[in-house]
Amino acid sequence: MTVGVLALQGSFNEHIAALRRLGVQGIEIRKAEQLLTVSSLIIPGGESTTMAKLAEYHNLFPALREFVKTGKPVWGTCAGLIFLADRAVGQKEGGQELVGGLDCTVHRNFFGSQIQSFEADISVPILTSKEGGPETYRGVFIRAPAVLDVGPDVEVLAHYPVPSNKVLYSSSTVQIQEEDALLETNVIVAVKQRNLLATAFHPELTADTRWHSYFMKMAKEMEQGASSSSGGTIVSVGETSVGTEQAKPDIPIYQ
Ligand SMILES: NC(=O)CC[C@H](N)C(=O)O
Fold it and tell me: Where is the composition biased (Low complexity) (predicted)?
């Protein structure tokens, strides 16, 4: 089982380092044909308009769509979430191309501008039940998007409660109401739809590798489901493997 990391722009090195801490080798993907060499893919955070322009320039969109369509596991973080969404609002003038496949609408900069970036502990029951560890996960939200609505096949994995009077955008599911000013709105920040996983925050910038481990297990389960003859092997770096003791991080990360 080999993991590709789209390496056009953004935090692809940090994802590769997080995978390495789990003993998994991440392969940088810059060309369409390289997608044929990996069985799962991570689309990192960064700046989605720039990333889309680069993907367009390198004619990557058809191959990325094909990868998603064939049911291979893909995880989009932040800008990667925007890439995977079927619908996006708050885009720059002229819009931007999306890979799509994930039946949801995202708001590109839901939480505001770069200076409104923040960190918060979010409750992710599925992560705790599958990976153990603390009840909450430290989410790093950098000019983060959010999911405004989801289709029937999309599972919501995490919400971030925002005081309703701070919600900058309203839609059918995310609404601001004067009388609700002191109430909280549960904004969707992590979702899963069959082979697709998406988070509005940046797990690759924390020391906690549970999201990467969760994605690896999801990929492994899907691969085993797809081919009962082979369970797939993780390309290991050093002697560690998924779920074993973590090696010392080799890049600066938020603790
Ligand atoms: N940290 C991120 O990936 C930010 C994404 C950003 N909101 C965008 O439009 O691309």
Answer: 226-244
| CATH no., domain 3-107+143-159+188-226 | 3.40.50.880
Q: What is the DSSP string of 185-253?
A: EEEEEEEEETTEEEESS-GGGBS--HHHHHHHHHHHHHHHHH-TT------BSTT--TTSPPPPPSS--
Which atom of ligand 1 lies nearest, measured to the CA of 79?
3
The atom number, within ligand 1, closest to the CA of 80 reads 3
Pocket test for ligand 1, best of 143, 169, 204 (most atoms within 8 A of CB): 143
Q: Is the ipTM of this complex over 0.85?
A: yes
pTM for the model stands at 0.85
Q: What are the sequence ranges of the domains in the chain? A: 3-107+143-159+188-226
